[in-house]
Amino acid sequence: MSNHGHDEETKVRVDFKEVNRDIFSVMTDTGPRYYVVMALFAMAAVGLFILPWAYQIYNGQGVTGLNVPVVWGVYLVNFVFWVGVAHAGTLISAMLFITKTPWRRAIARSAESMTLLALFLVTLFIFIHMGRPWNFYWTFPYPNQRQLWLNFQSPIMFDVFAIGTYFTSSVVFLYFGMIPDFAALKHHATGWRKQLYSVLSVGWRGSDKEWHVHGKATMFFASFIMPLVVSVHSIVSWDFALSIVPGYTKTVFAPYFVTGALLSGFAGVITMLTLVRWAFPVTKKYITLMHYDRVGVFILVLSLTWSYLTGLEVFTGIYANTTYETEHLIYKLAVSPYIYLFSLMIFCNTVLPLILILKKVRKSTSAMFVMCLFIIVGMWLERYLIIPNSLSRKFLPYMWHDYMPTWVEGAITIGAFCAFVTMFMVMIKIAPIISPFEVKEDSGVPMEKGGH
Amino acid sequence: MSVLKSIGGKLKSYRTGGNQETADHRWGMVVDLDRCNGCEACVVACYAENNLPVVGEADCAVSRAFSWIRIERYVEGEYPNVKTGFIPIMCQQCGKAPCETGCPVYATYHNQDGLNVQVYNRCVGTFTCATYCPYDVRRFNWRSYKPQAPLDEQLNPDVSVREMGVMEKCTFCIQRIVAAKDKAKDENRAVKDGDVRPACVQSCPPGALVFGDLNDPASEVSKLAKSPRRYRLLEELNADPSVIYLKRVADEGKNE
Amino acid sequence: MVFGLFKYVDTMADAASKLKTEGIDDIRVFSPVPVDHEMDPVLGEKKNPLRFFTFFGGLSGLFFGALLVLTTAALYVLPRGGKPIWAAPPVLLVSYETTILFGVLMTYFGFLVLSGLIKNFYSTEEKICFPETMDDSFGLLINVRSDREEAVMKILKEFGASEVRTIAWE
Predict the structure, then answer these.
(1) Distance between CA atoms of residues A413 and B122, nearest Å
(2) What is the largest CA-CA distance in chain A?
(3) B199 touches chain C (CB under 8 A)
(4) Contact A437/C33 with Cβ under 8 angstroms?
C-alpha cells in the first residue's frame, strides 16, 4: 500500500493467489514426523509439568526447596520470565502498528499467539506457586457468599487485574485479527475445519464497511494495549519493588523489568520463528531475513538499555552502601555460585548481543537462533538472581538462608517449555500462524497501471 | 445535617491511616534482654499452647522447624573474649505491618485489639506476607503434619490445627486474649493488666517477657516501655512493631 | 443487484467512480485486504461511531475500577498495614487496568455491531458471500433496480471486470 512501506526493502512481496494456499498448507499438511515430535513434547509436558505438579499438590509445597525466608523461588522466576516472553508479541502487533512499521505484519500473528500461550503459563505458574491452589478463585473479585472482597492494596491484587486484563485483551486482539483470516480459510477447508472456521469467522465477508470498522477497531485496540503492556510488567515488578526487602525495593525496577521482558520476548520470537521456518519451508517466503535483521536491531537496542539499567541497579546499591543492601550485593556478586551465574548473565545479555552490530550476524538465522537461546538463559538467570537471591539475605542474619531448588521445581521449569512447544504446535495447526490478509496488505494491492 | 456530618466523619476515618486510634487495645510485649538466658522455655510453651506441629527429624534438618518464637543467638568477639547474646523473636505485631498490605485475600489484617491476625481458613498461600515480613517470623505448613501419638492427646481445643499450604505466625495467644475479654465482660469490667498472659510469658523462668496493653498508661508494659534501655527491632523500617526490647547492659564493661 | 469481479483495485476504483457519475450510489466493495485508501476518494469517507463505544467502555471501566476498590473497602473495614482504608495507589492502578479492559471489550462489541456482523446473522440478504474476494479478487456489489442492471453490467465490463453477474435475492 502506498501510505506506508516507503522502504522497499522491508516488504514481503508475494502473489495474492498463493498466500491463502500457502498458509492453509502450513495448517493442514501434517506429516507423521510432526505428530511424533508433538507427541514427544506432549509426553514431556505431562511427565515433567503435570505429574510433578500433581505430586506437589498432593504432598504440599514441602517438596520444593523453598523455606522461610526464601519463599519465592523458581516458580516466581518462571512467572516473571513468561510474562516477559509474552510482552514481545503485543509489542510487535500493537506498538509497531501504531508507528506504522510495515515489517511487523508477517510476524505479528505468531508473536501474538506466543503472547497468549505464554500468558496461559503465567497463570498456571501463579497457581503452581500457591500453597493452596485449589482455592485459587479466592483471589478473583466477584460477589460471593462469604461477602468478603479482596485487598486491593496488595501488589498481588494489582497483578490479578493486570494479568487478567492482559490475558483478556490478548485473546480479544488475537481473535479479532483472525476473523478475516478464518473467513478466507473456511473456503479452503473441509470437514470439521470448515465448521469451526465458519463459526469463528462470525459471518465476515470482507465488505468495505467491515474493513473500515476493522481498521478503526485495530487502532483502538493497539492504543489500549500499548500502555497495558508497559503497565503489566511494571506491576509485576512492583510485586517486588513495593516490599521492603533489600534487593527488591528499587525504584528502577519498573523500567528494568519492562526492558528485560522485551529483550527476552524478542529472543523468544526469533527462536520460535526459526523453528517455524525450519519446520515449514513454505513460510520462508513470508518470514524473511529482513525480519531477522529488524528484530536483531531491536534486540541490540534492548540489550544495551538492559545493560545500562543493570549497571544502574548495582551501582546505586553499592554507592548507597546501606548495611542490608551491601549484604545483598555481596551475596549476589561475590559468593559462589552466584558470581558465576551473574557473569554468565552479563555474558548472555550484554556481551554476546554486541555482535548484532554486524549485519551479517543479523541476517544469519543460525547465529540469531543460538544467540537468542543464550539471551533466554540470561534473562531467566536475571530473574533468578533477583527473586530468590534477595530473600536469601534479608534483615536478620540469624535467618539468612541459602536456597536450592529441588527436582520438582526443575522438572516443572523444563516441563513448562515443553508444554509451551506442545501448545504452539497445536496452535499452528488450528489457527493461521501468519495472517493471510496482513501479508497481502503488506505486499500492496494489485494495480493495473502504475502503483505497486 | 447530622447525617451528613456522620457520613463526613466516616469518610474521614477511611482516609486516616490504619484506624489505630479507634482500636480497643494495643497489645504489646516487652522483652528484657538483661533477664533472658536463652533457655527456650518460651519456645516449648508455644509448641504446647498453639498446636504447633512437630515436624520430625528430616524437616528439622532443612530448618523447617515450626517455632513461632525463636531464640536467636549471636556470638561476638574471638575466644577467649566471647560474648553470646540471646534475643527472642516472635511476630512483632507491627502497627504498620508490611505483611498486611501484601496479602491479596485479607488473610492477614489488623484487628480491633491492635493485633496483626492471621485467618488460616482464608489463606491461599501466596507467600507474599512471608516475603514482605522483615523479621522472618512467619511459618508455613509445608506438608500435612499429623500430630503423632502421644502428642495428639494434648492438642489445645481452643486453637485450630492448620491445614497444609497455610501460612501462620505468632498470635500473642489470641485465644487467651479472647478468653480474658469474655471473662471481663461477664464480670462487667474492663480487661485489667495481668489478665492476659501468653504461653511464652507464663513460662519464662527469669520473667524476661512482659505482656500488656500499650494503650493503657498504667500497665506494666507501658511503664517498662519508657525505660532508657528501650529499642525496637529494625525500627528504621518504620513497621511500628509492638514488641519492645530492653537492651542488655548487665555485663557491659565486664568482658572488655 | 449486480456483482462485478476485478483483478485490480485501480480499475475497480475507476468503475466505481463512473457508476457514481451515473447516479448510482449503493455500491459495496468486497476485498481480501482493506482498500479504504484507494476506494475512499471514490466512494467518500466513511464515518462510524466506534469511538463512542470505546470511549464509553473506557469511561465505565474507569468508574467501575475506582468504585470497586472504594466500595468493597468500605463494606468491610479491615485495616491493614497502617494504611488508610481508601488509599490512592490501588484506586489508580485498578481503575487504570479496568479502563483498558472495559475499553477493549466495548470496542470489540462495537466492532461486531457496527460492521454489521451481528446483523448479517439474522438477514438473508447479508448472507451473500463471494469466496473469490477472500482470495485475490476485488468485487463491487451494486444495488440497482432491475431495469438498470444491463447498463451497470456494461459499465463494469467496460472497465475490465473479469466477471459480471446479477445476483437475485428474495
Answers:
(1) 28
(2) 81
(3) no
(4) yes
Q: State the SS3 of A343-404.
A: HHHHHHHHHHHHHHHCHHHHCCHHHHHHHHHHHHHHHHHHHHHHHHHHHHCCCCHHHCCCCC
| Shortest distance, CA A227 to any CA of chain B (angstroms) | 24
The amino acid at residue B7 is I
- Other C-beta atoms closer than 10 Å to the C-beta of A399 total 21
Domains identified in chain B and CATH numbers: 2-246 (3.30.70.20)
User: Nearest chain C Cα to A204, which residue?
Assistant: C117
Spatial distance between the Cα atoms of A312 and A253, rounded to a whole number of angstroms: 10
- pLDDT tier for residue B254 given thresholds of 50, 70 and 90: low
- What the block records as the C-alpha cell of C46 is 466513511
Q: Hey, what CATH class is C2-47+126-166 in?
A: alpha beta
CA B229 to chain centre: 21
Each residue of A46-104: pLDDT tens digit?
999 999 999 999 999 999 999 988 999 999 999 999 999 998 888 888 888 888 887 88
Domain spans, chain A: 2-141+152-442
A401 at B interface, C-beta within 8 A = yes
Q: Which chain C residues are closer than 8 Å to A231 by Cβ?
A: 93, 96-97, 100
Residues of chain C in contact with residue B108, where contact means CB-CB under 8 angstroms, are 80
C152 Cβ contact list (under 8 Å, min separation 6)? C2, C19, C22, C24, C142, C144
Do residue B110 and residue C80 have CB atoms under 8 angstroms apart? Answer: yes
pTM: 0.93
Q: Write out the three cell numbers for C30.
A: 468486497
The ipTM (two decimal places) reads 0.92
Enumerate the β-bridge partners of residue B139.
B168
SS3 B89: strand
B36 versus A5: the higher-pLDDT residue is B36
Q: Which DSSP letter does residue A67 get?
A: B
Decide the pairing of beta strands B139-140 and C138-142. unpaired
What are the domain boundaries of chain C? 2-47+126-166, 50-114
Rounding to the nearest 10 degrees, give the CA dihedral for residues B31, B35, B39, B45: -40
Would the CB atoms of C160 and A203 count as touching at under 8 Å? no
Residues on chain C touching A158 (C-beta within 8 angstroms): 90, 93-94, 97
- The span from the CA of A1 to the CA of A451, in Å, is 9
Beta carbons within 10 angstroms of residue B133's beta carbon: 30
The verdict on a CB contact (< 8 Å) between B101 and A395 is no
Cis-peptide, bond into residue B206, ω within 30° of zero: no
The yes-or-no verdict on residue A124 having pLDDT over 60 is yes
Which element (helix H / strand E) includes A298? helix A289-320
Nearest to C12 by CA among A448, A296, B130: A448
**Packing angle of the helix pair A323-334, A289-320 (nearest 10 deg):** 130
pLDDT, tens digit (0-9, with 9 covering 90-100), for A162-197: 999 999 999 999 999 999 999 888 888 888 998 899
* Alpha-carbon gap: B173 to the closest alpha carbon of chain C (Å): 20
Report yes or no: C43 and C29 within 8 Å, Cβ to Cβ.
yes
pLDDT in the model for residue A452: 46
| Residue C125, pLDDT above cutoff 90 | no
**Contact between residue B101 and residue A153 where contact means Cβ atoms under 8 Å apart:** yes
Task: Classify each residue of B218-250 as buried b or exposed e, where b means 16 or more C-beta atoms within 10 Å of its C-beta.
Answer: ebebbebbeeeeeebbbeebebbbbbbbbebee
> Would you say B29 and B94 are in contact if contact means Cβ atoms under 8 Å apart?
no
Round to whole Å and give the CA distance between C37 and A347.
Answer: 48
Chain C residues within 8 A of A235 when measuring between CB atoms: 93
Q: Where are the alpha helices (DSSP H) in A242-288?
A: 253-279
| Nearest by Cα to A394 from A333, A441, A344, A327 | A327
